[in-house]
Every structure is written in structure tokens, then in C-alpha cells.
Automatic annotation (TrEMBL):
Signal peptide, first to last residue: 1-28
InterPro entries in UniProt: Hex-like_dom2
Organism from which the protein derives: Hymenobacter nitidus
Protein name per UniProt: Beta-hexosaminidase bacterial type N-terminal domain-containing protein
Record bears the keyword Signal: yes
Lineage, broadest ranks: Bacteria, Pseudomonadati, Bacteroidota, Cytophagia, Cytophagales
Keywords associated with the record: Hydrolase, Signal
Length: 923
């Protein structure tokens, strides 16, 4: 062989050998298919929750490259590479207990590695085993593989952890009123979207939530048909069948995920066909309980329980019933609970579904005390911060109510409700939310969470974002659900580790490193302080009649009592501190200040806004994924920064105006003007930031919404609509300031409006009297008028029995040929002796006649009685019956509807003294 040929062959064989070695090395490095095979083993006839958990775990394993099968067997056997799933009490897990399979308390689980490369997931119950599967699936997803040595035990702290969906709309349906929304595809197309339900239920399961609340005024007439009241059904036959199928699907899918569906309803509401058949109203807060109403409701509940045994009930005794009293106790114990028992008896079931008593507008402790001997599976629910998010340091009488309910023999649930001060902007402050859940435990003693959507509750399932295709709340607000659920599971997690956790979550979402993710969290947490602080120091109410993000009028800041100030907001749902009017009065009198003050909050929210913008800007260059959503989040930070600056300047302007109230020094008004002008400049920025990004600020678009402006027929729902209002305030102040300078501080004289009696035909037997000093206001007492606002002089009041008003309430029937207003005088005192003034926080019908606002405050002084505020009830031509609740009240006469009733504070007390206000500067 020649040397050249030899060299050629040697080179050739060397290359072949290298390729063979390379091939062998590659095969050696490849995973062994047998090592990547796993069998998930369930007990024979396993519960649906175990199958759901196993499927979720199998999906995660397959994505990580494992070959997975699922089987059922009674014994673990000696096989390798198994994942054994079940309850600790199941034979399958008991036989494996020698390897360490244990489980903690209710809904708890343990995950432990065992011999033969096996893993044991042991649940205290089926839900616990399900949660163990989800936990292991998440670990596989984050690590890309099964850990070699697992030892984990966990269980939830809160007993019920749930979210709610409102089966309601931003507007009233034709011919109906608040909360009256039949279940139909036309009104609620999303209700019949099974894919959307699966998506939402999966989200709840991922967040370890075990309850889903559906809110509706009277759902029964859409879901059950009663033998004794067949005419009560308010949907057609085809829709009724769809509703049955949908509801069963929902209950079954929820049960697979360990979720109780809990149907909420109001009392006393009846269906529209039922009401029309019997010639009654669908709801009437002042009406008494009748055998007809009780029988219909009891049978509706019984039929519902029998038909949907996996569904619980949530009962709102207040709002559509007359507040606190024996009626609430009787209705709960003699109608609702018997109805549930009737349904269980017909079903042949002994397991009691949960009944949740909503503590809103009722004496919940008394109701629970009476009900516990009759029904054991009871829960109570009350709002955490009213219908907003304001503080994690609740206190006062509201905290005491929560502690009382928590101390009874039922689980108390905290309701994070409506969030009227947050919408529509994104919220994700892990710090604020964690501290809130800690307060639920530590201050309130509660052990359950009931979470509302973060925004757009009335517009479910959509957000308010203006996008080519509507965004879903379940997608946009993922962090809202995840944060509350995480801390409901375990509240006391070390803060540094939480910053790291959320930094990773946000970094993954936006394709950044953890450091940039932490900057996004910083932006969320800085912005997350703004709206809570603004509402708790400047707001009128914790209720959804105020949309904080649409701003406030100057008159609302300087004279909040005129707008029905809800003092619980300051007394219980805020840290100790001062309102704007309190701060101004102390300044004028040289008194020391206490706690959180308005100027302090003005400075703090401006700093928060600046910090939020800076943090989101630092994160922005690193974003590589979900860039459109990040841009929307970034815009939200700019919106909240502008909002903070608007409120800060306007609040400081209000303090200067109130200083003028006491000093009458024009220099104080001169100092207010540039601050007010600057607040409008900030509002112009709000308009610019929102005009192409948001459809609306508030999802409730009815007459219930009052602040800053009355929201009727979806008006005043955008920032652009509010801009002319705020510009007008500046013009009024500038004009009035010029006028004051010209007349050299001559006091402004109010031109009195003369209110004339309107002719009506009274169908109620009652005496009458002319409104003037010395006239007795009741038929059975000598209490007489000491002083009254001049506009009221000469009106014909109705003289009724105070005793009858207190025992039976007040009914007025009349006929009119023209639109009129009835002026009603409410005594300004909290006492069972007096009828409470209309209050939208507790009574959704409190503005059905336009009566929610005070027209003339402190308008009538009656000797020995509290001052009287005047409200106006509007009626069209026709015959009307007005039912008012129990308690003394004055009917001051009818006036023409076209006659404007002035809005101001007459300032009269029982001695007839008159106060000074400066609202006129802006009107």
C-alpha cells in the first residue's frame, strides 16, 4: 500500500470513528425515555376534583417533556415513577403512609418524595389533594422538571376565599329598577359562554379560591318554576332551558375545582310578572312582610335548593327591606332558612349548603343569634372599607361590628366591595393588599375573603379600556386576584421575599429581568397609595355614589355635609385625622391638629405620583413582551399622577377658601385662585391621557351616582365631560373675587326664592297647616316651628301623627294634574325615633324620586327637636303612593316641579341662629 493511500484511509477511518463517538455521546446525553415517564395514580372512583388536579398536573409534566398516563387503583404497588394522589384517608395513600404521606387541616396538602422515585400528594380532603396537584404543576412549570427531593406541607388560613361576579348592568332595564336583571342571552351573552366560564374558574382554582358569588336582585324567577306561582317566571321557555343547562354546567365545573357557587339575592324583591299579577311593586323598602311575599320567597328558595344542591345562598336582608328591626330577623328565620330546609327535605339531603348573611343595612349580630339554633352552616359578610379601598388600619364602630361578628359561632367574611375610588385604573399594590388582609385577621378577627372585581363591576366581563377589542377583566386584572388570593392563603409572608416574588412575576409577564419587574411593582405600590389617601381625607362617602377619579367640586370639598356626608368613612375607614373643614376650623381657632391632615395628604399623593411615574419609566426600556399592555399600565401611572396633582392643588385651594370663610380677608381668596387654576391644568392633562384610552371612569351609570355630578343615562362618565364644570368653577371664583374687591367686602345678600303651593288632590287623610313660626308640626304633640328658611314660608304642610309615623311609617297618596315636588323634612339625628334621610350607601332606591341630595340644609328649627334638612321628591302627573319607613318626618308641602328649590345651608338650629357658608363663590 502506498504511503499516500494509507494516509487517505487513515484519515477516512478517523473521521468515521469521530462520528461514531459523537453519535454515542449524543445518545448517552439524551434523556432516557423510561426515566421521563410518569404515572399519576388516583384512588378507584376518584372524586372529580382529583381528576381535575391530575389533568392539570399531567399538562404541566407533558409541557416539560414527560410522558404521562393517569390511572386509578386501590394499592400503590411496587412500581417506580408514580405520583400518588388522594386524600390522606384513602386506602391508596394510607398504604403509602409509611413513607411519610401526611396532610394538614382542611384543604391542606403535603407533597413528599418517596422510594422508587415516587411522589405522594396527600390532601386533608379532595380539595387539598387538588391544591397539591396544582402546587406541583406550578413547580414543574417554573423549574422545567420534577424536583428530585420534595417535602412540602401547606394549608390555607382563610376558610372561604372567593370572588364575585355581578349579573347586573351599568344601567336599568326598561320598566325595571335597581338589581332587576333576568338571566337572558340578550342582556348577558357572556353568561352562556362556557369557554369564558372555564377560563374564569381555572383562574380561581389557580389562585386557590374556593367560592364564587353571583350577585343579582331576584335570580329565582330565571332559574326555577313554581307549581303555585307558574306566572312568576320572567324568561321564555327556551331561555329557561338554557338557564337550567348553564347553571348546572357552572355548578359542576366549579365543584370539580373545589369551588362553591353562592347565589346572592336581595330582600324583598319579587319578579316583575309576579308583581304585575298581584298589583304590587317588585320592591318597596317600606312595605311590611305579608304571607304572600313570604310564601313565594320560601318556595322559590326551596325549589332552587332542590334543583341546584351544590349551590349556596347569600342573603342581603337590607336595602330592599327597611333596614334594621324584627322584620329582618323574622324574614331570615321564618322564610329563608325554612325555605332551605324545605329544599333539602325534598332532595333527601342532610348536608347543609352555606348561607352567607350580608351585614349590610341590618342588625347582623341579632339575626345570627336568632338563626344559629336553626341552621349551623352560617357565615357573615361585611364590607372591609365600605365600597372602596381606603385603609389597612380600620377602627371605630365599624371595626367593632366586624369583631362582634367574628366572635360569634359562624365564620366572618371580609368583602372587598365595588372599589369605587380605584376604577378604572389598574391596581396592584402587594404591600397595601397584604397589610389589608393582615388587618382582616388582626383587627377584624375575620377568616374569609369575598373579592369584587378591581374595576368595572357593573360591566362584567369587560374593562373600561378603549381598545379595538374589549379587554377582559380576568386578563387585565390578573394581579388583583392573585395578590388578594395569595395573602388570603397566607397573610404573614416576609416582605423582602414578597418583593422578590412579585418582581419575578412581573418580570416574566413583561419579558424583563427581576430588577425591572421590581420597578413595575414599585410603580404599582406608589400609585396604590394615591386613591385610598385621597378618598379617606377629601371624600364625601365610601359608597359607589362617588366616583373619586372624576374629581370633586369645590363645594363638595368646602361643604361636604350639604352632599350627605357619610361620616363612617372618616370615623372608621381611615386612620385618625382631619377632614378639610375640620382642619380649616382648627386653623381659624388656633387649635392643634391631630393625625393625618389634608395638607399632609396633598404632599404625599404628589410624591407618590412622581415616584410611580419614575419607577415605570425605569422599567420601560427592559420590556420585551406584552408591550401594548405595558403601555396601558404606564399610561395609568401618568393618569394617577395627574389625578394626585389635581386633588392636591384643589384641596389647598379649598383650605384658602375656608380661611376666607373665617377671616373675610380677600387675600385668602386671592391665594386660592392660582391653585384652582392649576388644578384645572392638571385636569386638562387627565383629559388628554384618557380620551383615547378609556371608555368611561365609572361602570355604574345611573342616578345612584351623585358625586361629583349626578350620573343619569350615562352622562358625566368621562374626564372630558367634567372639564367644563371645573373651568366654570374658576370663572365663578374669579368673577366673585372681582365683585368682592369692588364692593369692599359688603356681605353678599341671597335673593330668596319664593316657593308657591302646587295644587294636588290629597287621598290620604291628614290635617294641614301653614309653615310659619309657632305652628305645631305633628297632630299628637305640641312641638312647633321656631324658625324656618324664608323660601318655605306659607307652604301647606301635612300634619300627621308622630306616634303613627314611628310605629307604622308614613304613607302619602295623592293625585296631581301636573309634575310636582313634595318637600320632605328629615330631622338631622341618628335615632330610631326619626326616619333616616335617604342614603344611597344603604338604600339603592334612595334616589328613585331624585331625593338623595339635601336641598336646604338646616331649613326648619322645631323646638326641642334636631334641625331639619329639606329633600325634594319629584312626581309626574298622575296618582301616586309614597311609602316612607318608620320614624318621625315632616311633609312640608307640594311645589311645582318647574320651580327650582334653592340649594344652600339656611343654618338654623333650634334657637334659630344662622351660619355662614361660602358655597356661593362657585355657583
Amino acid at each position: 500500500m502506498s504511503p499516500s493511500l494509507w494516509k487517505h484511509l487513515a484519515t477516512r477511518y478517523f473521521l468515521i470513528g469521530c462520528l461514531l463517538l459523537s453519535s454515542l455521546g449524543t445518545r448517552a446525553a439524551e434523556p432516557d425515555p423510561a426515566g421521563r415517564a410518569r404515572t399519576i395514580v388516583l384512588p378507584k372512583n376518584a372524586h372529580g376534583r382529583l381528576h381535575y388536579g391530575a389533568e392539570r398536573l399531567a399538562t404541566a409534566l407533558r409541557k416539560a417533556g414527560y410522558q404521562v398516563t393517569i390511572s386509578e387503583q386501590d394499592q400503590p404497588g411496587r412500581k417506580k415513577n408514580q405520583i400518588l394522589v388522594g386524600r390522606a384517608a384513602d386506602g391508596l395513600l394510607r398504604q403509602a403512609a409509611a413513607t411519610g404521606a401526611t396532610a394538614p387541616g382542611k384543604e391542606g396538602f403535603s407533597i413528599v418524595s418517596a422510594a422508587n422515585n415516587n411522589v405522594l400528594i396527600s390532601g386533608a380532603d379532595n380539595t387539598g389533594a387538588l391544591y397539591g396537584c396544582l402546587e406541583l404543576a406550578e413547580q414543574v412549570q417554573s423549574q422545567g422538571k420534577l424536583s428530585d427531593n420534595i417535602s412540602l406541607t401547606d394549608q390555607p388560613e382563610m376558610v372561604l376565599r372567593g370572588a364575585c361576579i355581578g349579573v347586573q348592568k351599568p344601567y336599568y332595564l326598561p320598566g325595571r329598577t335597581v338589581y332587576e336583571y333576568p338571566y337572558t342571552p340578550e342582556v348577558f351573552p357572556w353568561l352562556y359562554d362556557k369557554a369564558l366560564w372555564v377560563k374564569y374558574l381555572d383562574m380561581l382554582a389557580d389562585n386557590r379560591m374556593n367560592s364564587l358569588y353571583l350577585w343579582n336582585g331576584h335570580p329565582f324567577a330565571s332559574l326555577v318554576r313554581l307549581k303555585d306561582y307558574p306566572y312568576a317566571v320572567e324568561v321564555d321557555d327556551a331561555t329557561f332551558k338554557k338557564n337550567e343547562e348553564m347553571y348546572r354546567f357552572l355548578a359542576q365545573e366549579a365543584d370539580k375545582r373545589g369551588i362553591w357557587v353562592i347565589q346572592m339575592f336581595y330582600n324583598i324583591i319579587v319578579s316583575k310578572p309576579f308583581a304585575e299579577h298581584h298589583g304590587i311593586k317588585t320592591q318597596d323598602r317600606a312595605r311590611p312582610i305579608t304571607p304572600l311575599l313570604s310564601d313565594y320567597t320560601r318556595k322559590s328558595i326551596a325549589a332552587f335548593v332542590e334543583k341546584y344542591p351544590n349551590v349556596g345562598l347569600m342573603v342581603a336582608l337590607g336595602e330592599a327591606m327597611e333596614g334594621v328591626g324584627q322584620d329582618d330577623i323574622d324574614w331570615f328565620t321564618k322564610t329563608i332558612i325554612p325555605g332551605v330546609h324545605d329544599g333539602l327535605k325534598a332532595l333527601g339531603q342532610t348536608e347543609l349548603p352555606p348561607i352567607v348573611l350580608r351585614a349590610h343595612d341590618t342588625d347582623a349580630p341579632s339575626v345570627i343569634k336568632a338563626a344559629l339554633p336553626l341552621y349551623k352552616n352560617l357565615y357573615t359578610e361585611a364590607k372591609f372599607n365600605g365600597e372602596a379601598l381606603t385603609t389597612y388600619t380600620p377602627r371605630g364602630s365599624w371595626a367593632e361590628l366586624h369583631r362582634t361578628l367574628s366572635g360569634m359561632n359562624s365564620v366572618h367574611i371580609e368583602n372587598v366591595h365595588i372599589l369605587a375610588n380605584l376604577e378604572p385604573f389598574r391596581y396592584g399594590s402587594a404591600d397595601f393588599i397584604q397589610k389589608s388582609v393582615q388587618a382582616m385577621h388582626g383587627i377584624y378577627g375575620a377568616n374569609g375573603l369575598h373579592l369584587y372585581p378591581q374595576a368595572s363591576y357593573w360591566d362584567w366581563p369587560y374593562t373600561a379600556d378603549k381598545t379595538p377589542e374589549r379587554l377582559l377583566q380576568v386578563d387585565r386584572d390578573w394581579i388583583w386576584y392573585k395578590q388578594w388570593a395569595r395573602y388570603a392563603w397566607k397573610a404573614d409572608r416576609p416582605r423582602p421575599a414578597e418583593i422578590e416574588y412579585w418582581g419575578q412575576q412581573l418580570g416574566t409577564l413583561y419579558g424583563t429581568d427581576v430588577a425591572a419587574g421590581k420597578q413595575v411593582l414599585e410603580a404599582y405600590e406608589q400609585a396604590g397609595e394615591i386613591e385610598p389617601k385621597l378618598l379617606r381625607r377629601y371624600g364625601i362617602t365610601d359608597g359607589n355614589r362617588q366616583t373619586l377619579t372624576l374629581g370633586m367640586l369645590m363645594t363638595q370639598l368646602i361643604n361636604p355635609k350639604r352632599y350627605g356626608l357619610f361620616t363612617l368613612l372618616y370615623e372608621s375607614e381611615a386612620p385618625e385625622g382631619e377632614m378639610i373643614i375640620e382642619y380649616a376650623e382648627k386653623e381659624a381657632k388656633g387649635l392643634p391638629h391631630v393625625g393625618e391632615t389634608p395638607p399632609q395628604v396633598a404632599a404625599e399623593v404628589v410624591a407618590h405620583g412622581k415616584a410611580a411615574v419614575a419607577a415605570i419609566e425605569r422599567a420601560a426600556p427592559a420590556v420585551t413582551r406584552n408591550q401594548a399592555e405595558f403601555a396601558r399600565l404606564k399610561n395609568d401611572m401618568y393618569c394617577q399622577d395627574a389625578l394626585a396633582n389635581f386633588y392636591a392643588d384643589k384641596a389647598l385651594a379649598a383650605l384658602h377658601v375656608l380661611r376666607y370663610k373665617y377671616s373675610r380677608n380677600v387675600a385668602d381668596l386671592e391665594a386660592a385662585l392660582p391653585l384652582l387654576e392649576r388644578s384645572v391644568q392638571h385636569w386638562e392633562k387627565m383629559v388628554s391621557l384618557t380620551k383615547d384610552t378609556y371608555l368611561y371612569a365609572n361602570s355604574m351609570q345611573t342616578a345612584q351616582r351623585k358625586i361629583p355630578m349626578r350620573g343619569v343615562d350615562a352622562t358625566y362618565i368621562t374626564w372630558a365631560e367634567m372639564l367644563p364644570v371645573y373651568q366654570k368653577e374658576v370663572r365663578h371664583l374669579r368673577h366673585n373675587l372681582d365683585s368682592i374687591k369692588q364692593v369692599r367686602l359688603v356681605p353678599v345678600v341671597r335673593k330668596n326664592t319664593v316657593l308657591a303651593n302646587a295644587p294636588v288632590t290629597l287621598l290620604t287623610k291628614a290635617g294641614s297647616y301653614s309653615l310659619k313660626a309657632g305652628q305645631a308640626v305633628f297632630a299628637d304633640t305640641t312641638a312647633a316651628i321656631a324658625a324656618l328658611a324664608p323660601e318655605l314660608a306659607g307652604l301647606r304642610g301635612l300634619r300627621l301623627s308622630r306616634s303613627q309615623q314611628r310605629k307604622q311609617g308614613t304613607e302619602v297618596r295623592f293625585t296631581t294634574t301636573r309634575p310636582v315636588q313634595l318637600l320632605v323634612g328629615y330631622f338631622n339625628a341618628k335615632s330610631p325615633r326619626y326616619l333616616p334621610a335617604p342614603q344611597l350607601e344603604t338604600d339603592a332606591s334612595a334616589n328613585d324620586y331624585g331625593q338623595a341630595d339635601i336641598k336646604i340644609a338646616n331649613a326648619v328649627a322645631v323646638a326641642g327637636q334636631p334641625p331639619v334638612n329639606v329633600h325634594a321628591y319629584s312626581f309626574k302627573a298622575g296618582t301616586h303612593t309614597l311609602n316612607l319607613g318608620r320614624g318621625a318626618v315632616l311633609l312640608l308641602g307640594f311645589v311645582d316641579a318647574r320651580q327650582p328649590v334653592p340649594t344652600y345651608n339656611a343654618g338654623l338650629n333650634s334657637g334659630g341662629a344662622q351660619a355662614k357658608e361660602v358655597d356661593w363663590l362657585f355657583e
